[in-house]
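JOB MANIFEST
job_type = single_chain_structure
chain_count = 1
residues = 191
[input]
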Amino acid sequence: MDESDGSGTNRRTVLTGVFAAGSVAVAGCLGGEDGEAIDPVSLDGERSCDQCGMIVEDHPGPVGQIHFADDEPEGGRPAQFCSSTCTYRYRFDEVDADRDPVVTFLTDYSLVEQEVFEEGEDVLFSSHVESDAFARTASLTVVAGSDVAGAMGPELIPFSADEDVESFRESYGGQAIDAEDVDREVIEGLS
């Protein structure tokens, strides 16, 4: 039975077109499969870390944020963190709870003018919470096991430029790891 509307278009063709348009619209709202339409937000003010509760901008070192497909329990804002280690720990736990992280951002020390300072025996990098200081983990390399600490002690220091990774490693040591390859074992190895 042909359900054509007289113009040669049948119901199945119309429904297929509507479904395809709806799928594209939904993907656009979510930022696509890899979150390309999602931008990082500034983490200034009294924002507390969703992993440990510390105020994000009050502590040195890299900070992070994760945008989830369901926006919960963060209430429509990304999950926010005072360190890259808190970022990864939270992400691992949420993935284990069947949540879908769309995109993860970390401070990109290739984008900012970092200050290096000492506090006691720790070497620390300045914190950068402004939205333009972040890059997607897909474009970052982190250095683990360096002499530079962060808000939670031993830290993963992220860079987007390979020459910055090598320069950092020459000064502070550590192992370069693709940020997308970081797993629980890497995080636990920092302690």
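[summary]
The chain has two domains: 1-30, 56-190.
The longest strand covers residues 101-107.
exit_status = 0
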